């Protein structure tokens, strides 16, 4: 599978502002910041400095989190070249409830979602840790497991969005459709499940029902046809898991608007509690004409080896 990686930028705070602030500090404040005479902190009677003997110095990991922490680290997310946004490019509409247009992941691809949006480790159950462990170790051994992506099936909305290919959003009053360049995938979101019935058969992308909360589209996706991978390394979601996605267009003055998707993962089979990740996607109207995507280049192409090295994953 061909993978592209996005572009990111950093910002610096001017040094001059910090210097001016330092010059404005009064001598009394400087003395207060230096602490008591001699530089010694005054402790209560009987107290000693530092944590008590044996006290943990960081977050206490569960047995399941220890298994995940001991795995080989995921691959790095690199930054690929991207065609720049033309100066005369059309901009998204000012309507916060109009998400239409073409977007593309503007962050480094995360091969493995290890932490939530607040920096806490994913709350694995032992079953979830074992599934991720066997997937990562099979890849390290050169015998990766067969997954939806490898056999040209829709990989689920989370992984499908994360990949470094553009997608277009088309919407009407009763539904939203997200069309992807990779796999030529399609994610259908019903805004009126009573008026527009959902498919009767289970879908690889799950069944998605959305509603507007102010300027945020809240989408609940459930009832997957099979268990899915949330990322390249195989962070798991069972067929009974749930994704709650909060999608909004962020428009800051002086900046090109971007799409933010905050996803809460709910799956008691593999996680002890819900946890949330966030991704952002850049505006890319100049990538609205999708390139032809031939998934047969990965499997079944007669011009390449028929053996991709993939093996079936053991069933739990």
UniProtKB/TrEMBL annotation:
Q: Where is the composition biased (Pro residues)?
A: 71-86
* Entry keywords, A to Z: Signal
Q: Which range is the signal sequence, renumbered to this chain?
A: 1-32
Q: Where is this region: Disordered?
A: 33-98
List all Low complexity biased stretches. 33-46
What is the protein named?
Uncharacterized protein
Q: State the organism named in the record.
A: Sphingomonas aurantiaca
